[in-house]
Design brief:
Glyas_Fos-R_dOase_dom; Anthracycline_SecMetBiosynth; VOC family protein; eight-stranded mixed β-sheet; alpha+beta; Glyas_Bleomycin-R_OHBP_Dase
Length: 261
């Protein structure tokens, strides 16, 4: 079972129309290894670095009946939040104004997964661990280090994550700060994820985004460009490290941030 508090990110996976291209890009950038789990698991790929689980990847050219000509979903990363009782959590999701895209389904003996959406429109996964708890926070280059939901309807999302996902919310901007509204699940060093109000940032679609730690942000950005990825924003310095927004050659966006010693 996961040692992280309920509602904390526990897994990430990539849906992409080009598994081989993604494996080449992330392998060069982060040192990730992609391993096909075979037909029984729909050729889902486990991603590891130095043996530590990082995430997964699956082809979007696969439907319920088998391979398809057109992608079934956009190329994007999904963040999974942990739960001890996936069916009970899904009931709370609908009670608190969320939606269920894919109901709970077992993944062999590893655990059970589902895909849902919060009331602000940000999609996320749910994972109830059985034999597999999720990724490992190694704190090294190529490790997932932070996750946050970016929403314009902050007032709808905040009670949802509290009541449906069991978040222990703490404000970073101050309870009365209307200019910057950001809460974390857990406080300070114990925080596991964030919820950010984007309503002042223009027409920004709601989504969950993830940060991958790197040894050197500027060097990683040069490698992103050399590997035919795209730098979307940054780099810029923050209190938490030098960060940037990038996109892989297939179109999936994510953040990188320099690991602070």
């Amino acid at each position: 079972m996961s040692t992280q508090p309920t509602g904390s990110p526990t897994w990430i996976d990539l849906g992409t129309h080009d598994i081989d291209g993604a494996a080449a890009f992330y392998g060069e950038l982060f040192g990730w290894d992609f391993t096909d789990q075979g037909e029984d698991f729909g050729h889902y790929n486990m991603i590891t670095t130095n043996g530590a689980p990082v995430g997964g990847a699956m082809s979007s050219l696969m439907g319920p009946e088998g391979p398809t000509e057109e992608p079934q979903n956009p190329t994007a990363w999904t963040v999974y939040l942990g739960t001890d009782d996936i069916e009970a959590t899904l009931s709370k999701v609908t009670e608190q104004g969320g939606k269920i895209y894919y109901p709970a389904m077992p993944v062999g003996e590893l655990g059970s997964m589902a895909i849902a959406e919060d009331p602000a429109g940000a999609a996320f996964g749910l994972w109830q661990a059985n034999q597999f708890a999720g990724f490992e926070f190694t704190g090294k280059h190529g490790s997932p280090v932070w996750f946050e939901a970016m929403v314009s309807d902050f007032d709808a999302a905040l009670p949802f994550y509290r009541d449906a996902l069991g978040w222990d919310t703490h404000s970073m901007g101050g309870e009365d700060n209307e200019e910057f509204r950001y809460v974390t699940n857990g406080k300070d060093d114990a925080a596991t994820a964030g919820l950010c109000d984007t309503s002042a940032w223009g027409d920004m679609p709601p989504y969950w985004r993830l940060y991958i730690g790197v040894d050197n942000t500027d060097e990683s950005l040069e490698k992103v460009k050399a590997l035919r990825g795209t730098v979307l924003d940054g780099p810029e310095d923050s209190p938490f490290g030098r960060l940037a927004t990038v996109q892989d050659p297939q179109g999936a966006a994510f953040q990188i941030i320099q690991i602070q010693e």
